[in-house]
């Protein structure tokens, strides 16, 4: 009965639009009070804020967010798009393909999906519309390309999953590299199919000489330096993910200074934006911890695991149901909130079924990408709509083919776990 009341309070608060952090914290507090009275509730409320912020790996979140802010200030993302356009822009739909490549590059130096979508919207959409691209195609490519930042390291979503699941963050980040490449190629192949089916939707681009292509790479070396400063140091074992996040933020600051964009006003804006987002994430984690303590004390997770373990059905069917649940939740909730709310409940079940937690984490994040572009929430679509002024219905139709392609990738990753679990012994 206590669990039912707490869940009803949680759902009611979410329906009425309260922040997820507040909804989880209040509903968890109500459940704890009904379960053990004021003494238990007071003890948990006294210790939860400190235990939430007192995790060494939490430092990776503000550092990677600050790195993303410095990257945006430096204008490196614009250089990525221009270089990709020079190399593949000659093809029909080449500028759209360049947008996907730029999205992957920006994802490799930023963990924020919405920041990636906003940056691409301000750079690539005007270029595509100027060349005669169909607005639906152009906006759909930008919205889906922005989601790559959720998967390609450094990924805030994978970091949060690692913190919640208590598994090596370095292994998670490196495990997202090959799936990130696969998703990028899938977006490019989807664009190729769309322009083949409707040649009028995208023109053939301008061709460039080999010298011009080489010249375009002069501005990309900064991105490669930043990528190897983060992912390279993690993979080689030189630095832990926490240390790599600090290295990445420092290198991004140097890049902004190199580009003469590190003015006092820009630096203050970057620090303020990173601090605000970090506070939001920590608030969500704190609310999830309160709710998680309630679930632990009432043994909801254990009872659910035992019940599912007793079902006479294939574990792959159970996995399919879990992923379907993540897809449905993505229609209505923020992806970070979904991870924090569901992982403590779902992961013990996944482990009992014999699945690898690193593989499952990458699979969940790829699934969560779909929620970034599907109605009614579709955060990336709303970001693109705000920058372009295009109707939401048009944008959701433009991203629909990419959603179907993403579902194929999810099935591929589920069927072949080795795509994710290719880690060296130092990362296991």
From TrEMBL:
Regions that span the bilayer: 6-35, 56-77, 97-125, 137-163, 169-196, 217-238, 274-296, 316-346, 358-383, 403-423
Membrane topology classification: Multi-pass membrane protein
InterPro entries attached to this UniProt entry: DctM (IPR010656), TRAP_DctM (IPR004681)
Keyword tags: Cell inner membrane, Cell membrane, Membrane, Transmembrane, Transmembrane helix, Transport
Domain of life: Bacteria
Predominant subcellular localization, coarse grouping: membrane
Domain TRAP C4-dicarboxylate transport system permease DctM subunit residues, every copy: 7-419
Cellular compartments per GO CC: plasma membrane
Keyword Transmembrane helix belongs to the record: yes
A Pfam family per the record: DctM
Intracellular or extracellular location(s): Cell inner membrane
GO terms of molecular function: transmembrane transporter activity
Record keyword Membrane present: yes
Function: Part of the tripartite ATP-independent periplasmic (TRAP) transport system.
Subunit structure: The complex comprises the extracytoplasmic solute receptor protein and the two transmembrane proteins.
Annotated family: Belongs to the TRAP transporter large permease family.
The name this protein goes by in its record: TRAP transporter large permease protein
Species of the source: Notoacmeibacter ruber
Organism lineage string: Bacteria, Pseudomonadati, Pseudomonadota, Alphaproteobacteria, Hyphomicrobiales
């Amino acid at each position: 009965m206590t669990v039912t009341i707490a869940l009803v309070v949680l759902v009611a608060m979410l329906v009425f639009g309260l922040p997820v952090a507040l909804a989880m914290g209040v509903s968890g507090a109500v459940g704890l009070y009904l379960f053990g009275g004021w003494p238990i509730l007071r003890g948990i409320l006294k210790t939860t804020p400190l235990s939430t912020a007192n995790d060494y790996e939490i430092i990776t979140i503000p550092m990677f967010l600050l790195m993303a802010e410095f990257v945006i200030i430096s204008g490196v993302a614009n250089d990525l798009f221009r270089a990709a356009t020079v190399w593949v822009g000659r093809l029909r739909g080449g500028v759209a393909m360049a947008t996907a490549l730029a999205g992957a590059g920006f994802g490799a130096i930023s963990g924020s999906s919405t920041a990636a979508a906003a940056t691409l919207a301000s750079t690539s959409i005007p270029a595509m519309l100027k060349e005669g691209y169909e607005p639906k195609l152009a906006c759909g490519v930008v919205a889906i390309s922005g989601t790559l930042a959720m998967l390609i390291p450094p990924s805030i979503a994978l970091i949060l999953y690692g913190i919640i699941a208590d598994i090596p963050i370095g292994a998670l980040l490196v495990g997202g590299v090959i799936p990130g490449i696969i998703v990028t190629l899938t977006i490019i192949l989807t664009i190729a199919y769309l322009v083949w089916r409707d040649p009028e939707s995208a023109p053939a681009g301008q061709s460039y000489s080999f010298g011009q292509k080489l010249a375009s790479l002069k501005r990309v070396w900064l991105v490669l330096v930043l990528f190897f400063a983060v992912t390279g140091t993690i993979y080689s074992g030189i630095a832990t993910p926490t240390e790599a996040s600090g290295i990445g933020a420092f290198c991004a600051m140097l890049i902004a200074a190199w580009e003469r964009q590190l003015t006092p006003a820009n630096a203050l804006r970057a620090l303020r934006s990173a601090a605000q987002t970090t506070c939001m994430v920590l608030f969500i984690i704190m609310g999830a911890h309160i709710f998680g303590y309630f679930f632990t004390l009432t043994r909801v997770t254990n009872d659910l695991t035992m019940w599912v373990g007793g079902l006479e059905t294939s574990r792959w069917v159970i996995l399919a149901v879990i992923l379907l649940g993540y897809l449905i939740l993505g229609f209505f909730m923020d992806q970070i909130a979904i991870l924090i709310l569901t992982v403590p409940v779902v992961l013990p079940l996944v482990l009992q079924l014999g699945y690898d937690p690193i593989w499952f984490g990458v699979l969940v994040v790829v699934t969560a990408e779909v929620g970034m572009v599907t109605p009614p929430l579709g955060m990336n679509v709303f970001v693109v709509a705000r920058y372009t002024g295009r109707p939401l219905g048009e944008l959701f139709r433009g991203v629909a083919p990419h959603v179907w392609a993403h579902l194929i990738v999810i099935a591929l990753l589920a069927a072949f776990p080795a795509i994710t679990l290719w880690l060296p012994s130092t990362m296991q």
